Amino acid sequence: ADLTNLGLLKNHCNQNILIVGDGDLSYSLSLCRCLLNDYNVRVYCTTLDSRGKLLENYSRCAQIVECLESLRNVCVLHGIDGTNNGLIKEYMKKDKVQYFDRIVWNFPHLCGKSRIHKHRKLLLDFFKSSVEIIEPSEGQVWVALTKGQGGTPREPEYENLVKGNTWQIQYKAAQAGLIMTDVFNTDDSILKLHATGFRDGLGYSPRGFHNGDHTLNSKGGLCHVFSLPDMMKHSVYRLVWKYDLAYMVNPETFSFSFMGDVISILLQDPGIEFTISDVDVYQRPGVATLDKTSTIIFSSSTNAHLKYKGRDNNRFLIELKTALDNLALMSMEDYNFNCNITGQ
Ligand SMILES: C[S@@+](CC[C@H](N)C(=O)[O-])C[C@H]1O[C@@H](n2cnc3c(N)ncnc32)[C@H](O)[C@@H]1O
């Protein structure tokens, strides 16, 4: 599977592909040239820019659009925002398309100079919009990023990467409920796609951060593939979440194994593992209770941990406190657990 075939199967019928934010549409044309003879696909090639703006900005675009529009089962659309599926849903309805089998966005970028947190939000909004329109069991969302941007352990210089400077793609996808099932270097795919234009020069050249013919340096880029989780799918790298808790307990009745049992009951998912460890324990003079700060680290390769993420990040901790309090009331009179949420 690579960017020339999107891992599609030749003998499947009626597969729908949505290409998002495709600069001068050269990826769309190259992909169509790779797929259309052998695969039964309908391809929606989209840009955020209007057609007028595209023709103004990209010198090859008029030719590319003409070629695309001469192809069967290809639809060229403009003004499509990858973070808001409202408009594309209207086209889906009109064409009786229920879901997309693939949604692809190569080198998403807010044009101009932008902060990292805005790009994280761009990815998150794109993933949230995409999960509503991908086929739930086999559908995939593909995102290519330049070297170092994604911040997964697959980055060639991961050890030296300042994690706070990356777009944290795996975690943005997880927030929308997706797990990363594949990740690969894009160099070979881009060469092959570029070569589809050997006759007319219309092959894929990734376009730059600024609008216009400026080429983007894609060398060493990675394509990240995401799916909705089920027990058959595993993410390439485990997702890890860390919670710090500050709380007060009666040392005679409290134990980590008790807390662990409560957490397991709350999670109801053997696919999520966790460890609990003390960061700090303090015994105030003259008081029977202990002040503790502990870290719980959750990890999973099958669960995007959605249950406790999303709108209310602290819901899990509140549920944990309530469960411990309730259990304590039933079994231990002098049990006391005050959970102060100090972070995540
Ligand atoms: C670095 S360029 C890459 C263009 C193209 N995908 C390629 O590989 O050549 C980033 C593209 O993202 C588009 N873009 C930015 N925000 C977008 C959004 N919210 N929805 C769709 N496209 C967007 C821009 O218009 C631009 O074409």
UniProtKB/TrEMBL annotation:
GO cellular component terms, semicolon-separated: cytoplasm
Domain spans labelled 25S rRNA (uridine-N(3))-methyltransferase BMT5-like: 18-185
**Which region is the signal sequence?**
none
Q: Which GO terms describe its molecular function?
A: rRNA (uridine-N3-)-methyltransferase activity
What Pfam family does this protein match (any one)?
A: BMT5-like
Q: For this entry, list what GO says about its biological process.
A: rRNA base methylation
Recorded protein name is 25S rRNA (uridine-N(3))-methyltransferase BMT5-like domain-containing protein
